[in-house]
Design goal:
The protein has 279 residues and is mainly α. The protein is built from twelve helices and no strands. Helix 11 packs antiparallel against helix 12. The two termini are 31 Å apart. The C terminus is likely disordered.
């Protein structure tokens, strides 16, 4: 036996203890309903209750646009940042600072800036553009803005990494043949970047789909932002029905897998060459 395989042992144990075992335990627990009724009783309970079932749509309505906007916003900024210019490090630092803020501090900032008595509304009413405060927190928009602020740095760093791995001589060669800037981006950069964009979208989507603190702090957890993670939390820690909470967690993971599969199929059809960029 190759002794180098022993180097994989710590990582294998890590994966088994922290990922495989919790998943298998949660899956088996979801088939053990607290009140009986068959192994699929918890899943039937979830999908037969519109209040619970709608959390899937609510979460997708928040997570999909947030992930898509993060990727779309990251592309032009990363495209500009891959070159050399004065102040690049400072600008990169400013763009990734939200990573260090955390969800709670971001929510506090949003409430202070966009809340009914925040600076934004005070300025609008002060210059006469609004008579009443515009509601941008404690609703859908509060959660959406929070996900944009916390998700953009990840999207930006990933897209910048992929863009940095694309050989710039390809674009220069196309330019010598008369290709315009838009043609070079559309015919060379974008196809090579497509695998990276798909991966970036998936990572930011998974982060957004598991939103929890933002939905409570700057959302409306009893209404428009009652996401599926909140439903799982309430089942576990308010109703103390851990089997039902496990079933909701499994449904949550299944929905994420469906989105991941759709994006990967789209990626395989859009680009069939070797993966572009460093990733």
């Amino acid at each position: 036996m190759d002794r180098r395989l022993w180097l994989l042992l710590p990582a294998t144990v890590f994966v088994l203890v922290l990922f495989i075992y919790p998943f298998v335990y949660g899956l088996s627990l979801s088939f053990q309903p607290m009140n009986g009724g068959g192994v699929f009783a918890n899943y039937q309970k979830f999908f037969s209750d519109a209040y619970q079932r709608d959390t899937i749509v609510t979460t997708l309505r928040i997570a999909l646009p947030a992930a898509l906007l993060n990727v779309l916003a990251a592309v032009p900024i990363a495209f500009r940042m891959r070159g050399r210019f004065r102040g690049k490090r400072l600008m990169t630092t400013v763009l990734v600072i939200p990573i260090t803020l955390g969800t709670v501090l971001t929510a506090q900032g949003l409430l202070n800036f966009l809340g009914p008595t925040g600076w934004f509304n005070r300025v609008l009413m002060g210059i006469g553009l609004a008579d009443d405060p515009i509601r941008l927190t404690n609703n859908y928009w509060g959660v959406f803005f929070s996900l944009i602020i916390t998700g953009f740095p990840f999207a930006f760093l990933l897209v910048l990494s992929y863009l940095s791995g694309i050989d710039p001589t390809l674009e220069r060669a196309a330019a010598t043949l008369g290709a315009s800037r838009s043609q070079r981006f559309r015919r060379i950069t974008l196809p090579l970047l497509a695998p990276g964009l798909a991966t970036t979208f998936l990572l930011t989507f998974v982060l957004a789909f598991s939103v929890f603190p933002s939905a409570v702090l700057v959302g409306n957890p009893a209404g428009s932002t009652r996401v599926i993670s909140l439903a799982a939390y309430q089942a576990a820690y308010e109703q103390y029905d851990y089997a039902y909470a496990s079933a909701i967690a499994m449904i949550m993971g299944a929905v994420e897998l469906v989105v991941v599969a759709v994006v990967l199929v789209w990626r395989s059809r859009l680009y069939t060459g070797s993966t572009g960029g460093k990733g």
